[in-house]
Design brief:
The structure is a homodimer of 442-residue chains. With 442 residues, chain A is α/β, with parallel strands linked by helices. Helices cover 32% and strands 23% of the residues of chain A. Chains A, B: Keywords: FAD, Flavoprotein, NAD, Oxidoreductase, Transit peptide.
Chain lengths: 442, 442
């Protein structure tokens, strides 16, 4: 495949190293870059943000348990030890597949011999992009901070309010989408609210608060086995979350959600109802399938573009059984590791690649303190033990030892004292809305 | 003094407790509230922000060493253990001294028997308030985050730039004002920049960077003895800071500072050139003196208003030698502790107050790693030992054990590894400017 490309890449001078450009520094992009680190390959990583982000714990930033810096770090630092890797903070605006360059928002072009597209996914508002302002998803630090501010500010306003109806509306959160993100947010908001009402506020009662989780389908956590879903449902209800299934949202405005025949006055809406691939398919003039994902070959190259690869949420890869691979961090990470190694073998030694194979490491969701679920395919785990395992795994997956230490210290502290973390309102940010409709996975 | 007021306060019913309202939850307000905690006095603390903030370490947030949540905590949590204290997130718009109420921005009135004004200070732009947008001070988390974003974004842009002049401008920071804040910021920016250039960036050289500290007077750190000032000057120059004294700033725009006959192209300007009291004097229809500070009696009541007290940066208190007390955290804290005890003794036991006396605990400034100065009046300390003492004292002064633990862990980690902390750019906030011209000390 594309041997002439490698030679083209080398014709500028016999010692000129092959160039790999990676767009997006999420789980997939970083794994690719890591596998290409300290090789005689010239690697450039382009991202619109300066930091990577451990998205699985972002809900803890949104619910004031962790600080943004606990789960993110500058991409330059993550990749700093690899002298062959350059990092660029820039936005890609197009790909010139014939001339083999990537165009940036500042007008410059970056040449490549191999291009890796790892731009992740964005929340799908299914044609209602105007809902985004009132119902942010949970993909960026900015969104997490926005949700945190709305939640905390609503409680402060409720404390001052003398109108019982207004008080109730201020203390009502609506989470749309019953997948892992929705379940985690609903559980965490219920916990945070209960904690704040019992400890910190004088004029609020626990029954003033409502946390509503709306799912359009017949059950929450649809990808998990029934016994785990049942457990999660009970755990959510025990935490005070009202779970409403088979209910489709019709309208989202600043302070109201309409679903079916019901109207919910609310101060905080969170969107977790589905994702679509980042729109990078249009750079290549192709049409993405199934949520905009780009179909890839077994070697992860994009069909029809042998020198361009797509991984992670952007790519539509197939499992051995022919089913699409899920949009999960572990898929992106495994694809990145595979692709980095494959490019290294191909570009340096001319070795062709074995097809990519996904190894399922288990699927998890956390409902709250002492309550999580794990699905390992052959066996499952739930309850306190699953929660401890979840915490261990997530600390382990953090990017470096310092973050592991900081997050562990805070979690242990909070587990023992039942205190909460970063409950800050930055007034200048509290009223802003997410500005972009296209987001890179960072 | 004002015995009839207490009786007035008590006429609503014999069991009605006396009411103390405290505006501002900075060092002074929190100390007052703490001293009134768990007493039969009805205390209300009003602040426009939900968190207190340990301002002495705010420069470490601005220079990406600490996270905002490491040095701030919800006021509700700090005061949560005192059942007699209510917290309100609101902005005070006026005081009705005859009717004894405080008016809030939402139109409601809060009655008091004794009122404590502890609203702190704001940076003084000496009539050039339009400079604020380009030269933020360092009083709030929002400003610290804004400075952090500007610094980090400038380095990212410089890495991509091919124009040497532009590169230099992007890597030039100008700090206006040679007091402790200016010195701390200049030292920390020089350290951060040097670290990032040598470790993380591929296309930047140390001599691309300039950190310029401008002081209008003849010397920096004017309140410190000469031997310490000399040491600080040498330490700054060793760190690569250009210190320019006797230089008055004439103009600040988005990317240029003009001072004397010099023009500095820059990407980041920081203001530390002087403070003025928060404008709460106007609530009472009086004119503040010396930077807007409100003159107070020896018992800290405002001259002419025996039931209203002012403490901290807002107040113009006098030392025993008749000189004005400096605008320092330790003054605010001591005044708050004194006033809380005095109000308790007066309101509960009818005991009159002894005059307030300030005890100087020593004055300090930090230039960078292993370099700080202490002035204890009779003796001084400088260098590495002063730096360790500075670190110990500041960890000890943090609001609770969890913050002490988190900050210690991070500082020790960074001291050993020479790594840096929270280097995050949140793109939505990077372009915003401070919105308010009046800021409460929080």
């Amino acid at each position: 495949m594309a041997d002439e490309t490698l030679q083209n890449g080398m014709t500028g001078g016999e010692t000129k190293p092959p160039r790999v450009v990676i767009v997006g520094a999420g789980f997939g992009g970083l794994a690719t870059a890591g596998a290409l680190g300290n090789s005689p390959i010239d690697v450039t990583v382009i991202d619109r943000r300066n930091h990577n982000l451990f998205q699985p714990l972002l809900y803890q930033v949104a619910t004031a348990a962790l600080s943004p810096a606990d789960i993110s770090e500058p991409i330059r630092r993550t990749l700093g030890r690899f002298k062959n890797i350059n990092v660029m903070l820039a936005e890609v605006t197009g790909v010139e597949a014939v001339g083999k360059t990537v165009t940036l928002d500042n007008g410059t072009s970056v040449p490549y011999d191999r291009l890796v597209i790892a731009t992740g996914s964005d929340y799908n508002y299914f044609g209602h992009d105007d809902w985004r302002a009132w119902a942010p998803g949970l993909k960026t630090i900015h969104e997490a901070r926005l949700i945190r501010q709305r939640l905390l500010l609503a409680f402060e306003k409720a404390e001052l309010s003398h109108d019982p109806e207004e008080k109730k509306a201020l203390l009502t959160s609506v989470i749309i989408g019953g997948g892992p993100t929705g379940v985690e947010m609903a559980g965490a908001i219920a916990e945070l609210g209960h904690f704040m009402i019992t400890r910190d506020f004088r004029k609020l009662e626990p029954d003033h608060m409502r946390v509503i989780l709306i799912e359009a389908g017949p059950k929450i956590l649809a990808t998990f086995p029934d016994n785990l879903t049942q457990y999660a449902l009970k755990a959510l209800e025990k935490a005070g979350v009202e779970v409403m299934t088979n209910l489709a949202v019709e309208s989202v405005t600043k302070d109201e959600v309409i679903a079916g025949s019901q109207r919910f006055r609310t101060s905080c809406v969170i969107w977790g109802a589905g994702v679509k691939a980042s729109p990078s398919a249009r750079w290549l003039g192709i049409e993405g399938k199934a949520g905009g994902r780009i179909p890839v070959e077994p070697d992860l190259s994009i069909t029809g573009f042998p020198d361009i690869f797509a991984i992670g949420d952007t790519a539509l890869g197939l499992a051995e059984d022919g089913k699409p691979l899920p949009a999960l961090a572990q898929v992106a990470k495994q694809q990145g590791q595979y692709l980095g190694k494959a490019l290294r073998a191909k570009l340096l030694d001319g070795k062709p690649a074995e097809p990519f194979r996904f190894h399922n490491r288990g699927n998890t969701a956390v409902i709250g303190r002492d309550a999580a679920i794990f699905d390992f395919g052959k066996w499952t785990l739930k309850g306190r033990l699953a929660w401890f395992l979840w915490a261990l795994v997530h600390v382990y997956l953090l990017v470096n030892f310092e973050k592991r230490l900081l997050v562990s210290v805070q979690w242990i502290w909070r587990y023992l004292t039942q205190q909460r973390g970063a409950r800050l309102i930055d007034e200048n940010a509290a009223t802003s809305v997410p500005s972009s409709t296209q987001r890179t996975e960072t």
